[in-house]
Amino acid sequence: MTTRVLKQPKKNKTTQKKLLKSFKKNYALWLFVLPGIVLTFIFSYVPLYGVQIAFRNFNPKLGFFSSQWVGLKHFIRFFDSPYFFMTIKNTFVLSFYSLVAGFPIPILLALLLNSFRHKRYRKVIQTVTYAPNFISTVVMCGMLLLFLSPRVGVINSVITFFGGEAINFMGEKSLWRHIYVWSGVWQGMGWSSVIYFAALSSVSPELHEAARMDGASKFQMVRYIDFPSIIPTATILLILSCGSILSVGFEKVFLLQNDLNLSVSQVISTYVYKVGLIDNNISYSSAIGLFNSGVNALLLIAVNRISKKLSGISLW
Amino acid sequence: MKKTVHARQDKIYDITIFIILSIIFLIVAYPLYFIVISSVSNPEAVASGQVFLYPIGLTLKGYGEVFKNNEVMTGFLNSLFYTFCGVLLNLTVTLPTAFALSRDKFNGKKLVTIFYMITMFVSGGMIPTYLVVKNLHLLDSMFALILPGALGVYNMIVARTFFKMNISEELYDAAAIDGCGDGKFFFRIALPLSKAIIAIMVLYYGVGHWNSYFSALLYIKSEAKFPLQLVLRSILVQNESHLKQAMTTAAQIKAMEEKRQLMELMKYSLIIISSIPVLVMYPFVQKHFVKGVMIGSIKG
């Protein structure tokens, strides 16, 4: 008994010493990571801890963590409100539509570009299709409003030129989702295809040569060699985008919102902004935000598990 | 026999993808081209839909209007300043972190990596983050725009992979034998060998700062500190202009109509001017951009 007691601290001391020694050896590297850790801690971890205001009645005088505890009150209030169904539905529809439209097109573009022989024209197409990715969201929405304007927009000019009637695009709520999604496809397809293009460039040319010897046509090579080679990349990206299906980007939705399309364009993130920072309902809006990230996390785990079972590809 | 059949199929395939790619090219390029030609056309011609393939009634009035607009000019300078300071901070935080995490001997590697990975999947959300910024008394200050995003985890992983692939272990060993410590090694040897990744980081972060409006919308209150994107928002999206006086006589209404068309024209010029920094960098760095995505897709 006594020996055991004596032994234990001795052992601890040596591990401590070891730790200290290796820390000393690495002290410069620890200094390197320190600023990032401090900043990330303050701006990512403290808010994470601050999530608990969703379970309290936020009172600015009492501050962050001593406001009154109210449990799930704000969550229940959200579930009971008419906005619950509306915002969830809008978020889901918009995300899902974006995913269905935006996911396959970059893959297709990469496959087409990769099997296109003319190097210079290929380069030109790549340069041009990447470019919209660098347009800011504000400018992108400004462009949309300019092009779609009922009085001076170029699209309505074309419509009226052919004898049609001008359409008030932004006022027509049935068109809003299509405008949102397809402008997003326009802006993102080139850039999203880069990652598939990278995956395709690692396909060994010997495979193509062998297929050629066996008498495969070009289309067959794309179908049976190129396409399968990017499936792992595509699966990972699909899992990731499924995991964020409830977090439709705030920025663009917010800018394209107006009173006429609010019933299809109010999504969870814009609602959180409105309730929290415009109406100053801090705790209620934090609860909605927390609910949103909770569902996202669950979706990510579920999709990852399904993918692991079906294809053996997973994030972790 | 079989071969000729395939040769014909190949030809059809080639022509088909040529056509599809050309259509894609036109769809992406035309709106961009249209903005350019409209920005130098007569406002009346743009408004009546005559401008289609080339500029009509060449004029630089729209650009003149932009340069006369004080808000735009202040915003432009503010954005340049925010972008410059922001990128500087991003680099001083991201590159050393990435370097440390790329070293096999670093005993905190796993711990620190997990610390960052967690932030990729869970976050406090808009409101708790806002409250932190508020409690630190950073509202309406430039620091609210640059401190919270000082280290982008994705960018850091890209840089880490780059260091791992490009700076060999032998180089470390050789330097260590000559008595070179980690700090000295990073500044004297690793950084000079890493110009490509520095370029990628400057661009990724730079474009991010230049294009961002959301954090400014949340945190910046005084108009004199607005970045360009917020000014653009009020002109391009919210359609706020300074012509809200009452107009009564016919001449005044006509003047007003002209002014309104000029405002529309100014929007096209504004789009071009706001994109200048990115446009200037784009041709030089396009290959770096792509390389960055490729490094990111490999992961480490």
UniProtKB/TrEMBL annotation, chain A:
Its main location: membrane. Residues 88-303 form the ABC transmembrane type-1 domain. One of its GO terms (biological process) is transmembrane transport. The keyword Nucleotide-binding does not apply. InterPro entries: MetI-like (IPR000515), MetI-like_sf (IPR035906), UgpAE/MalFG_permease (IPR050809). SUPFAM superfamilies: MetI-like. It is a multi-pass membrane protein. The chain crosses the membrane at residues 27-48, 92-113, 134-159, 179-203, 224-250, 282-303. Keywords: Cell membrane, Membrane, Transmembrane, Transmembrane helix, Transport. One of its GO terms (cellular component) is plasma membrane. It comes from the Bacteria. It is found in: Cell membrane. PROSITE patterns: ABC_TM1. It holds the Pfam family BPD_transp_1. Belongs to the binding-protein-dependent transport system permease family. This is Sugar ABC transporter permease. It comes from Vallitalea pronyensis.
Automatic annotation (TrEMBL), chain B:
The chain crosses the membrane at residues 12-36, 80-101, 113-131, 143-163, 185-207, 265-285. The keyword Transmembrane helix applies. It comes from the Bacteria. One of its GO terms (biological process) is transmembrane transport. It is found in: Cell membrane. It is a multi-pass membrane protein. InterPro entries: MetI-like, MetI-like_sf. One of its GO terms (cellular component) is plasma membrane. Coiled coil: none annotated. Residues 76-281 form the ABC transmembrane type-1 domain. Keywords: Cell membrane, Membrane, Transmembrane, Transmembrane helix, Transport. The keyword Transferase does not apply. This is Carbohydrate ABC transporter permease. It comes from Vallitalea pronyensis.
